[in-house]
Design goal:
Elements: E1 3-4, H1 9-13, H2 17-20, H3 24-31, E2 34-39, E3 44-46, E4 54-58, E5 62-68, E6 74-80, H4 88-91, E7 100-105, E8 107-113, H5 114-120, H6 126-151, H7 154-168, E9 173-175, H8 178-185, H9 189-201, E10 205-208, E11 211-214, H10 217-223, H11 227-241
Antiparallel strand pairs: 1-2, 2-8, 3-7, 4-8, 5-6, 5-7, 9-11, 10-11
Helix pairs in contact: 6-11, 7-9, 7-10, 8-9
Amino acid sequence: MTRKNGSSGAVIAERNGILSALLRTEYRRLVAKMEHVELARGAIVYRANQRIEYVYFPEDAVVAMVDTTEDDRTVEVGIVGREGMTGINVFLGGLTTPDKAVVQLSGAALRMRSRDLRRELRFGSPLQRVLIHYTQVLLAVLSQLVACSQHHSVEQRLARLILTMHDYAAPHEFVMSHESIAAMLGARRSGVSTAAAGLRDTGLIRYRRSRVIVLDKRGLERKSCECYRFIRKQYEGLRTRVPRLLSS
């Protein structure tokens, strides 16, 4: 992660859903306690049971929360992009996180010390009210992902994951290795390879040297399970439900 200097509040505020819900006066007060950083793909933001020193508000970076079992199997818990914040346990009163957070798409984020966030969470503050809405949506999404991992095929879940990353990526091309996809889906690498080949051979994606390009989004949506549409609807609803909270 490298710090970026001289970022203007007006530009940054519109690139993260939580921060863009705040009026400029409130945002400018908060941004003085934040720093602009670049998150590199594969970087570990948190390790499981590690104390959370910072929370991150992604702009174009995407961070995956991953759980690891005692036999070293992994599964996606959730994905945080420009709509949200990593380190939600701090908002809920926790000091650590049970999940590992790994950067899936490189990009920018604003980070804030956890102790500064706690000071901001006074009763009724605009940031607290926005985070309450976000946490409600996040819990619904996480619940859906649990059901997805139990009841849908590797191919369906891979289609859902590719669609999700495609929505975040610009210009809709991104890099994900078979190993990282397998870790996200909690599936064997061989199963991911077979599913990816199926999506490629039917003309839905182009996948070469870990580089993914969506060729037929509508076809991929039909191949995906209903979880993609559910999750997308939740985040779209969040944007419409959270108004600007202060008068100018």
